[in-house]
Structures are given as C-alpha cells and as structure tokens.
Amino acid sequence: MDLLIDSCAHGTLSIALAAAGHDVLTVLAAWPDDPGDLAILARANAERRIVITRDKDFGELAVLQRQPHCGIIRLWDTPASQQVMVCQAVLAQHGAVLLAGAIVTASPYRARIRPPLNPPDPVP
Q1: Residue 9: which residues within 8 A CB-CB, separation 6 or more?
Q2: Residue 98 · residue 88 · CB < 8 Å
Q3: CA separation for the pair 86, 48 (Å, rounded)
Q4: With left for phi above 0 and alpha for psi between -120 and 50, is residue 48 left, alpha or beta?
Q5: How far, CA to CA in Å, does 84 sit from each of 31, 34, 64, 79, 117?
Q6: 3-state class of 19 per DSSP?
Q7: Binning pLDDT at 50, 70 and 90, where does residue 11 land?
Q8: Residues 37/15, Cβ–Cβ less than 8 Å
Q9: What global pTM score does this model have?
Q10: Angle at which helices 11-19 and 80-99 pack, to 10 degrees?
C-alpha cells in the first residue's frame, strides 16, 4: 500500500513498513518544513496514500470539514516500540476499507473503525 507517515509517528515506522513492501513517504522527507495537516492530507489524497499519524486533527479535517482522503490510521496510546506491529495489523486487516476512506483509530489493544463518509450532497 501507499502510505504517508506524519512527522509525529516514530522514525522506525517508515523503515519497517518500507521493508514490508509498502510505498512509504514521510512528511520529513517530502517537505523541508512541516506544511500543516491540510497540505499533508491533500497530498496523501492526490497520491492515493493512507495517512499514518498520532494527531487527532486529521480525523477532524476528514469528518468535520469533510476533506477528501484515502484513509487515515491514527495511532492512539501506542508506544513507539509497538507502532510497527499495530500498523502492520491494521493494514493487513483493514486495508481495503482504509483505501475507501475509513479512519482507523488503533492501539495495541483494539482498533476502532469509522467507515467512509458518504460524499457531500451536490450544491443545487
């Protein structure tokens, strides 16, 4: 899968996921300075990448502001030592629904899935 890893996720996460065969882009490698969550989400959507983050703001952008995206994994209460394991499990179990626009909030103990939102109604 194609992934974009936010700067708040642990550095070894990108190495491990790339080694597992994923196409990984990191915010730190893609921009000289952090461009902000909206720009990160827009680029991930344009490139059909799943965002991996610890930041709840991405969910707010996707749900409240209805910003388009290709899936978000939010690592909640996940120590750096377990981020790789949690991400690999989520990608294996929920990859298809993520690509359809789901948001998965995951920890070592559970995963909560918010299904994709319906597209906004057309403006008359």
Answers
A1: 52, 53, 54, 75, 83
A2: no
A3: 21
A4: left
A5: 23, 22, 28, 10, 27
A6: helix
A7: confident
A8: no
A9: 0.91
A10: 60
pLDDT tens, 54-85? 999 999 999 999 999 999 999 999 999 999 99
Other Cβ atoms closer than 10 A to 15: 13
- Residue 34 CA to residue 106 CA, distance in Å, equals 24
Among 98, 82, 72, smallest CA distance to 16 is for 82
- Let me know: does 80 contact 90? Beta carbons within 8 Å: no
Report whether pLDDT(103) > 50.
yes
Contact 21, 64 (CB under 8 A): no
Distance between alpha carbon 6 and the CA centroid of its chain, in Å? 8
Sequence-ordered list of residues with C-beta below 8 angstroms from that of 19, at least 6 positions apart, any chain: none
Closest CA to 41 of 120, 92, 101: 101
